[in-house]
Each structure stands twice: as structure tokens, then as C-alpha cells.
Design brief:
7 strands, 2 domains, alpha/beta, 7-stranded mixed beta sheet, globular
Length: 306
């Protein structure tokens, strides 16, 4: 498999990488422009025993390695199959991807970078640019992981909701679906609201945080945060009134944007199926996938890319 061959079939290219050819080309050019500086810093690290330029050369060009990374993230194949597709040994697949991942992170709009921008917003116009309608939508997503060997970890990562061992990540998106904040992964058994209490994003005072019933108590615990929740059916009163039901329907229509964004993330196999890699790599992978999703959304909405 190569860029020249795959780019002749645009539908397959989009299916295999999650990007259109034009989108791939934009990111690829940015990666290539920064590659020499990135390699010079990597090879000049303290403690390196070899001289700069020594060591095994890469068989694939930078663009092909970026393509390989996307195909792996999107299809989540084994290293053995990836090696067969790109005519490499499976150990080189792991090596090549781990080396290019930090450079890819620098070239796409990661949630961490966007969150730093939102923390510096001052004027109403600046706030509205990143929070159209002055609204932010927060929700958590779970992903299955292999059953941990350690007994304590097995109990810690077991999710009663999914009946599996999982990790949980919280996302904050704006009304266009752009991911403005993402937490590191937490154990699957932790409640959504517990994650919010420990790692909640700080939004401008004008912005409403639209949440679901999993975040009950936020209005009492965080009175300075503008939070909007649906009505909850109370035991004594019974059914909700027609007005409350209508409000809940409107609330669901607003909140569906965060569900759509999570769905975009999970279309990448590495985030949508059981995560087979080491858990230490989870946040790196979810950062890159979130950055790719942000890139597509921001480019469609003509926002300033990083």
C-alpha cells in the first residue's frame, strides 16, 4: 500500500484513513515542513550514544509513514497485517509510528492546545468564536480494555455499566462539535460526575455548560459555573409535566452534538474497539484522534488551524 496507489481511489482513501485526500495533503505538508527540525531534536537528545545521522534509515518516506499511522488508527489492524500492507517488519511498524506520533501531535489542533486558547479569551467576540451560542457540552465516553492481570486493577477498571473492564474519558465540545477539552483516561468504575469534580474544564463566565443527568449535583457543588441539566423524574411527584418533557426534548436536541463528536472519534478503530495497546499509550492515541476530528470540523467551519 502506498499514497500514490491509495489516492487513486478517493472513497477507499477516506475509508482507510478517516480523511479526504485534500485534508491528508494539508497535514502531510505541515509534517514534512517540520520534520527536519523534529528529527534533529530527537537525535540530539541527552544520553544518545550514536552520532546524529547514525542508525537504521527509514524505509518509508514521511508521507508514507503518516499514511501508515492513519491506516493503523482507522482500521486498527495488527502490526503483522500493517507490516504486510506496507512491506515492513512488524517491529519497524511500532518503531516508525512511535517516532512520528509526537510530530503529528504538533501539526493538528489537539484539545489541549484549544483549551489553552479558551483560557485566554477576554472579549465577548473572542468567547463567541470558540463557544458559538455561548454553550459548551460535556459528556464522558467509555472504551473496553483487556482484562487486567493484577487483581486490584481488575476491580478498579471494572465498569458495572458496561459489564467489562473499561477506561473513561470526558470531553467538552462546542456547538459545532469541536473538542475544546479532553481529560486523561480514568478507571471505568469512576462516575462521570466524579471525573467532572476532579478535572472539570474552566469556561468563560458567559458560557453555559450543558450536561445530562449523570452530572446531578453540579449546580450545588459549583454555584459559579453556569450549568444546564434536564428535569429528573421525582419519586413522590411521579411523571414529569408536559412542559418539563418538552424542555427535556429540547435539551436532548442540544446535547446530541457531543454524542455526534464521540461517534466521530469512535469511527477510528483504535478508539471504537477494545484497546489492545499498552494503557500508557492510550492518551497519546486519543489525543491524535481528537486532533484529527478537530481538524476536519475546524477546516469545514473555516476556523483558524494551528
Amino acid at each position: 500500500m502506498s499514497y500514490a496507489r491509495l489516492s487513486r481511489k478517493p472513497l477507499l482513501f477516506k475509508s482507510f484513513t478517516g480523511l479526504y485526500i485534500s485534508e491528508f495533503d494539508v497535514i502531510s505538508r505541515e509534517i514534512e515542513s517540520r520534520y527536519e527540525e523534529h528529527e534533529r531534536k530527537r537525535l540530539s537528545k541527552r544520553g544518545r550514544q550514536r552520532d546524529v545521522g547514525a542508525g537504521r534509515p527509514f524505509k518509508l518516506k514521511v508521507k508514507e509513514r503518516f499514511l501508515m499511522l492513519l491506516v493503523y488508527y482507522r482500521l486498527y489492524t495488527t502490526y503483522t497485517l500493517s507490516g504486510f500492507l506496507f512491506d515492513l517488519d512488524q517491529s519497524n511498524i511500532c518503531r516508525d509510528m512511535s517516532i512520528i506520533e509526537p510530530l503529528v501531535r504538533r501539526c493538528i489542533p489537539l484539545p489541549k492546545k484549544l483549551y489553552k486558547r479558551t483560557r485566554r479569551l477576554r472579549t465577548i467576540d473572542e468567547v463567541e468564536e470558540y463557544f458559538p451560542g455561548f454553550k459548551a457540552f460535556i459528556d464522558s465516553s467509555e472504551q473496553e480494555i483487556p482484562r487486567p492481570e493484577n487483581k486490584r486493577k481488575r476491580k478498579s477498571y471494572y465498569s458495572g455499566k458496561k459489564k467489562k473492564h473499561t477506561v473513561k474519558t470526558q470531553y467538552m465540545v462546542n456547538s459545532e462539535g469541536t473538542i475544546l477539552h479532553k481529560t486523561g483516561h480514568d478507571r471505568g468504575r469512576i462516575h462521570d460526575y466524579e471525573i467532572f469534580k476532579n478535572k472539570h474544564p474552566k469556561t468563560p463566565l458567559q458560557v453555559e455548560n450543558v450536561l445530562d443527568l449523570g452530572y446531578l449535583g453540579v449546580q450545588n457543588d459549583f454555584p459559579t459555573v453556569k450549568s444546564v441539566l434536564p428535569f429528573r423524574k421525582k419519586r413522590k411527584k411521579g411523571e414529569l409535566s408536559d412542559e418539563e418533557k418538552k424542555y427535556n426534548r429540547m435539551h436532548s436536541k442540544l446535547r446530541v452534538i457531543v454524542e455526534h463528536t464521540v461517534s466521530r472519534i469512535k469511527k477510528f478503530g483504535i478508539m471504537g474497539t477494545k484497546f489492545r495497546n499498552k494503557l500508557g499509550r492510550y492518551d497519546h492515541a486519543s489525543d491524535i484522534v481528537s486532533g484529527l476530528v478537530n481538524f476536519r470540523i475546524m477546516r469545514t467551519n473555516r476556523m483558524v488551524l494551528l
